[in-house]
Amino acid sequence: LTLSLAVVLFLTHSGTTQTVIPTYAHVDAVMGVTLTCSLCPPGTYMHAFCTATKDTVCLSCPTNHFTQFWNYLPKCLYCTNICNGNQIVKEQCSPTRNIVCECKEGYYRLHDFCVKHTQCPSGFGAKQIGTVHRNTECERCPRGTFSAVVSSCARCVNHTDCGQLPVLLRGKSWHDNVCTACTDLKDGTLLRDVLQGFFSHAKLKMRKLSRFVQLLNHDGRPDRLQRFTLLLDVKSWIVTAHKHELAKLPEILRISGFRGAKGKIDRILTQFEKAYRFCKDI
Questions:
Q1: Could you tell me how far CA 51 lies from the centroid of its own chain?
Q2: For 129-177, how does the pLDDT look when each residue is reduced to its tens digit (9 = 90+)?
Q3: Are 23 and 70 spatial neighbours (Cβ–Cβ below 8 Å)?
Q4: Which of 15, 44, 116, 181 qualifies as a FRET site for 266, CA 20 to 30 Å off?
Q5: What b/e readout covers 48-69, taking b as 16+ CB neighbours within 10 angstroms?
Q6: Does one domain contain both 132 and 200?
Q7: In terms of domains, do 33 and 140 share one?
Q8: Global pTM?
């Protein structure tokens, strides 16, 4: 399609508002004079220079080509952007724009790279949920709220109001109030859930954690390097351990060097033991 700049001028008039066509200087080889020529609008390219009697001749960009700005390019630019890795196509190639890429969900742009949103650890919630343009901002859960998950989008939520139910464990920043009736204590699932949550949240040093896992499993395996694998071992042990084995957790923690964690597990087990005795008596 050949565009006359006169037509372009006509199309850009709107009432009393007129769009000024940008120009460039061109030396006419025949006349030897410098001419002021109109640039070609976005979506077109220059097919022929202007002359003393005719303005610039512009043609539309072919498929998969574009020009984004007013120009006097001899041909349109090829749409070259490739969205890969953690990117998706936001806008397809058009006559006036190259392919536009955008970070996929869960990622944001940082220095031309798509980076995964920060995961807020348990005890922290998303103060500002990440977008394709900014990272997630985490905050420590304030008193009366908690977050029990590792997430880039979960916010802190209020502790459950136990109402008429007894509060077995007061909520912390990383777990909810544990409200319970005697029927909830029968199979030991509630205690195992609380213990697993504790180890998911606790900041345990790797070397001591490896020693702790060895003591739980009664083996001499060499230290493992991945925290995730070690914690998975701990959680698996908690699921299958008998009640009398769970009672030994504080001592195993003490031997492993986790004195602070030992005290906390002691308190959890004591609270549950009191609840067991109470329920047994009624």
A1: 56
A2: 999 999 999 999 999 999 999 999 999 999 999 998 889 999 999 999 9
A3: no
A4: 181
A5: ebbbeeebbbbbbbeeebbbee
A6: no
A7: no
A8: 0.69
Minimum mean pLDDT among 4-8, 14-18, 174-178: which range?
A: 4-8
On whether both 244 and 172 belong to a single domain, the answer is yes
* 84: exposed, middle or buried (Cβ count in 10 Å: 0-12, 13-18, 19+): exposed
Asked whether residue 89 is assigned to any structural domain, the reply reads no
Residue 108 near residue 130, CB atoms below 8 Å? yes
Q: Which domain holds residue 149?
A: 117-158
Q: Are residues 141 and 190 in the same domain?
A: no
**Span 224-250, average pLDDT:** 89
- Residue 229: inside a domain, yes or no? yes
Residue 142 resides in a domain: yes
Same structural domain, 154 and 188: no
Q: Are residues 187 and 269 in the same domain?
A: yes
Contact status, residue 40 vs residue 70, Cβ threshold 8 Å: yes
CATH number for the domain spanning 134: value is: 2.10.50.10
The domain boundary residue, chosen from 158, 177, 210: 158
Domain total in the chain: 3
CA–CA separation, 134 vs 151, rounded Å?
Answer: 16
Closest CA relative to residue 7, chosen from 74, 60, 69, 64 = 60
Instruction: Quote the pLDDT of residue 185.
Output: 85
Going by C-alpha positions, the residue among 52, 95, 59, 64 that lies closest to residue 74 is 59
Per DSSP bridges, beta strands 23-27 and 44-48 are unpaired
